[in-house]
Amino acid sequence: MIYLDSAYIAKLYLLEPDSLRVQAHTKGQLIGCSALGKLEVAAVFHRKWREGLIPEANFRAYSRQFIADDESGLFRWYPVKNEMLQKATEQYQLLSQNLFLRASDALHLATASEGSFKEIYTSDRHLLAAAASFGLTGVKL
Question: Average of pLDDT values for 123-129?
Answer without folding.
Answer: 96
